[in-house]
Amino acid sequence: MSKTRIILITIILMFFVTSLSASIRVVPVPPTIATNDIYVGNARPLTASPLIKLPIGAVKADGWLRRQLELQAEGFSGRLTEISKFLKKEGNAWLAADGKGDSPWEEMPYWLKGFGDMGYVLGDKRIIDETKVWIEAMLNSRQSDGWFGPLANKTGAGDNKKAPDLWPNMVALNALQSYYEYTGDPRVLELMQEYFKWELAVPDEIFLPPFWQQQRAGDNMASVYWLYNRTGQESLLQLAEKIQRKMANWTETVPSWHNVNIAQCFRSPAVFYQQARDPYFLQATERNYNMIWGLYGQVPGGMFGGDENCRRGYYGPRQGIETCASVEFMLSCEMLLAITGDLTWADRCEDVAFNTFPPALTADLKALHYVVSPNVCQLDSKNKAPGIQNDGDMLSYNPHSYRCCQHNVAHGWPYLAEHLWMATPDNGLAAVFYAASEVTAKVGDPSRASGSSGGQQVTLKAKTQYPFEDTIQLTVGTAKSVQFPLYLRVPGWCEKPALRINGKKTVVFAEPRTFLVIDRQWKDGDTLELTLPMELKLRYWIRNGNTASVNRGPLTYALKIGEKYVRHGGTDAWPAFEVYPTTAWNYGLVIDADKPLNTQFEVKKKGWPKDNQPFEAQAAPIEIRAKAKKIANWKPDSLGLIGEVQPSPIKSDEPAETVTLIPMGAARLRISAFPWIGEGPNAHEWQ
Questions:
Q1: Contact (Cβ atoms closer than 8 angstroms) between residue 149 and residue 164
Q2: Residue 244 in 3-state DSSP?
């Protein structure tokens, strides 16, 4: 018998033995032939939900993610009522019984939807109590015709004084939905039912006129479906069709090149797909993504150049993205993941969450800036227009500025925490994002759960420092054994996942962007260990000078640049800072295409930071050593904005040096799209 045949038989026997105690399969998407009996997914005739969001509070974050939430709670987002004029309670229209007063627009609900969820996820009484003040005011503002919130929006805002402006209420609905998921307060459903009746009665000619509400009405539609899934009122589907008819046409084209509109609205056709049931609408969302990211997103970090709008000729790695757009894109990915089950959206979400979003704020989360760029050499307060579209300070860290992002940034980390685990149609659980966490949920066949109307409660604890390490350890807690399927995501960058069940190696063959499904009788104390080997890879951005980025697993790495923080304003309690480089940044990588990457780049694992904050330059737990040469002519432009990249390979007579790369998310100053050094006739002089 040949050696190959013996090995093949051994593998088959190992898989068979393992399968005696557990059914293991690989699927691209959780099958929707069944319907989850425990948690609220889409109700017919909407498309079935392959992944279902668990109620807020079911998932508790731990490790570095919990630390982000704690820092945020004590940072400017958690204390924004002390800073923002839009959140002053005296005379605030959102708190007034008659709906009249100051600050009636988007700022308060922008802040509240993240602030409240942060409190719910952390179990923070101070934040929950403060949230309730604003929620109670909204519930009490309901008028006899169904309207709620400030009257200024009902009578028309901005240039249009005849049509109602529904945009602020679209955001407020998100905060109300979260409050309902956390508390079960029936007044939320009552308010939404009456409000949507009012919307349905608004004449078409004044329903959703330009600009913001027309672009972003997909948010309104998503809230309509959320309510439909809980009440089954058919009139809600009529309202959704009306919204689709009157909103900006994201199905046929990209109607706005404003960066936040893009991040928030490109998903809109897929939202309506749930009712239309026509794949054309799913394809429209993917077409939007490919068009936008294909033109302006050829950069590391998962976002695109849109500092304020995408502009022809402005697509290099020095162009930035609003902090608002990063968190809205993360939410879009989370929503699209639930609608489609397609793990591409999980990869895209993590790319932004780990690489672009963290450096939008200081490491203590006490200040933010408006625009985050893949390549940036200093973050001063001086005007960078027209290199950056807007005039004025766009780059310094300031808790008092950047109005929309200042309020909207708060939902980034809480929403990610809530989506770490999701329910599946077959009454199972899915780990769709990885972080240290604990999920408590009901699973299994409800008919077999004695004394329970909906499944058996289990708790799964995840121990990991992912994305900085490649292993996730899971422990099952259950009062008695229970059969249910557990779905484990295999990311798109991972080619050879490994699995151990109760310490025993299990043979698995899973393609990237699939789920490993372990369906078995789970007992208290059962353990799993999932390893997702992280390999070094280079990604080339041909549209942007053929620059290269260095990736390991879900993390992109950037040049470690010395950072000097200089206060330039703010208050003693809440200062604002500029950041200047203290070390050279104008490097090109030395890359030998004929040698393996692991011989050119050295991965160095450092100790885990004591404060549990890995997204800080000096505390980054993983570093990579690389060879590089300075590019003498690569300098800031006359406004202090980093010079545009030029086509690689680049000539350099400078000596080779060893430089340090750190995760892009830990670097406030960074080069993440690197020129690379070459010789001979194909190499270019940097002009």
A1: no
A2: helix
**DSSP secondary structure string for all residues of 17-35:** HHHHHEEEEEESS---SS-
* Other CB atoms within 10 A of residue 165 CB: 25
- Helix locations, 24-106, DSSP H: 63-74
Nearest to 197 by CA among 252, 142, 160, 244: 142
Cβ proximity of 414 and 69 under 8 Å: yes
Q: Is 474 left (phi over 0), alpha (psi -120 to 50) or beta?
A: beta
* Among the listed residues 106, 579, 63, the one whose alpha carbon sits nearest the alpha carbon of residue 361: 579
| Of residues 423, 126, 183, the one with CA closest to residue 118 | 126
Residue 294, Cβ density class (10 Å: 0-12 exposed, 13-18 middle, ≥19 buried): exposed
192-197 contacts, C-beta under 8 A, 24 or more apart: 192/223, 192/227, 193/227, 193/231, 193/233, 194/142, 194/146, 195/142, 195/146, 195/147, 195/148, 195/169, 196/146, 196/224, 196/227, 196/235, 196/236, 196/239, 197/146, 197/235
Strand 587-590, strand 676-677: pairing: parallel
| Calpha distance 166→156 (Å, rounded) | 9
pLDDT tens for 329-370 read 999 999 999 999 999 999 999 999 999 999 999 999 999 999
Phi-psi region of 268 (alpha: psi -120 to 50; beta: other; left: phi over 0): alpha
Q: Which of 78, 105, 79 is nearest to 93 (CA)?
A: 105
Nearest Cα neighbor of 76 from 300, 409, 322 is 409
Cα 383 from Cα 32, distance rounded (Å)? 52
Asked: is 3-30+421-531 a CATH 1.10.10 domain? The reply is no
Average pLDDT over residues 361-384: 97
- Quote the CA–CA distance of 379 and 370 in Å, as a whole number: 11
End-to-end CA distance of the chain: 66
CA atoms within 13 A on the CB side of 413: 29
User: For residue 295, how many other CB atoms are within 10 A of its CB?
Assistant: 16
- Enumerate long-range contacts of 386-392, CB under 8 Å, 24 or more apart: 387/318, 387/637, 387/639, 387/641, 388/307, 388/319, 388/320, 388/641, 389/307, 389/308, 389/309, 389/311, 389/314, 390/307, 390/308
> Which among 136, 129, 171 has a CA at the least distance from the CA of 328?
171
Report helix, strand or coil for 39.
Answer: coil
The domain locations on the chain are: 3-30+421-531, 536-677
pTM for the whole structure: 0.94
Mean pLDDT, residues 300-325: 96
Helix (H) or strand (E) holding 431, with range, is strand 429-431
For residue 160, the model assigns a pLDDT of 54
For 82, 104, 193, 319, the CA distances from 96, given in Å and listed in that order, are: 19, 10, 22, 42
Q: How far apart are CA 257 and CA 321, in angstroms?
A: 12
Beta strands in 482-621 (DSSP E): 482-490, 498-501, 504-506, 514-522, 527-531, 536-541, 547-552, 555-559, 563-570, 575-581, 587-590, 602-605
**How far apart are the C-alpha atoms of 459 and 477, rounded to whole Å?**
5
93: tokens are: 């229209």
CA quadruple 376, 377, 383, 386: dihedral sign: negative
